[in-house]
Amino acid sequence: MTEPCIITVAITGALPTKEDTPAVPVTPEEQIESTHEAYEAGASLVHIHVRNEDQTPGSDPEKYHAIQEGVKKHCPGMIIQFSTGGRGRDQDQRGGMLHHRPDMASLATGSVNFPSNIYENPPDFVEALASKMLEFNVKPEIEVFDVAMLYNAANLVKKGLLKAPVHLQFVLGIPNALPARRSLLEFLIKEREDVLPGSTWAAAGIARHQFDVNQWCLELGGHCRTGLEDNIKFDRDRLAVSNAELVTKIVDIAGDYGRRPATPAQAREILGLAGRD
């Protein structure tokens, strides 16, 4: 018997450059199309950012809603996750689209150094954002950029601001944050079992670490994240690898680890979202 693996596709990031413009879907229409291709390839969860007309990181709730409606139409049952990340957005904007009630939203439970700035998530802001997700019945995906964030999530459960079982994503390979080391991932998994029993988990590998981390997740019983947000690649002719191709890389090797891509219905069951679609 093979075990289902939820494949998350992060279709576009928050830090555009002119060089990545041909690769990364920017407009709602492009994002819906890219998500549909990844869905057909085997992804069952999509992580969404929006961008402004000049391609800078955006916060327009209606753009989030437009992508949400397009994904619902073209990717039946797919889990929709909004990003509440802070790059390029003020804190008061980061949860401004949650009233559209996506299935999930990202929630970083602490601050961390990034290569050129601080990803600021002070405790009062994290608690307010968690409360807003509770209000709109949005399941958080806890983004763990540093070890302390795991224990911070456990404290939020104790305070009643997170519902157990929680879903965690370990982010590996960002300079100044968690390195992409298998031994560290194994430690985090063990700690998760102790402090957040019953939780589910995935891991994201940044840049050149993406596929290695995908394989660790398949082997260690977790779920996978891929996509151009984490790993923008080009071939020698400057033609972009697509989100769907990155999903396919995982699908092609899943059987070697006794895994298979989760269907949207299976992914919803695993994450406690059954009936939400």
Note the main attributes of this structure:
single chain; about 280 residues; alpha/beta; two-stranded parallel sheet; 8 helices; about 35% helix; globular
Structure description:
This protein has about 280 residues and is α/β, with parallel strands linked by helices. It has helices at about 30-40, 60-75, 125-135, 150-160, 180-195, 210-220, 245-255, 265-270, and strands spanning about 5, 5-10, 45-50, 80, 105-110, 110-115, 120, 140-145, 165-170, 200-205, 225, 260. It has one domain (about 5-270): Aldolase class I (TIM Barrel, Alpha-Beta Barrel). It contains eight helices and twelve strands. The protein has an eight-stranded parallel beta barrel with strand order 2-3-4-5-8-9-10-11, surrounded by eight helices. Strand 10 (about 200-205), helix 6 (about 210-220) and strand 11 (about 225) form a beta-alpha-beta unit. The chain is globular and about 45 Å long. It starts with a strand and ends in a 7-residue tail after the last helix.
Task: Count the DSSP helices.
Answer: 8
How many beta strands in the DSSP annotation? 12
Query: Multimeric state of these chains?
Result: single chain
Please tell me what the overall shape is. globular
Main sheet summary: 8 strands, parallel, barrel
Strand content: 15-25%
Distance between the termini: 27 Å
The CATH top-level class label: Alpha Beta
* CATH fold call: TIM Barrel
CATH superfamily: Aldolase class I
Can you tell me the residue ranges where pLDDT is under 50 for at least 5 consecutive residues?
none
Task: Tell me the layout of helices and strands.
Blueprint lengths: L2 E3 L1 E4 L17 H14 L3 E4 L12 H14 L4 E4 L21 E5 L3 E2 L4 E2 L3 H13 L3 E6 L3 H11 L8 E6 L9 H14 L4 E6 L4 H11 L2 E4 L16 H12 L4 E3 L2 H7 L7
Parallel strand pairs: 1-12, 2-3, 2-11, 3-4, 4-5, 5-8, 8-9, 9-10, 10-11
Antiparallel strand pairs: 6-7
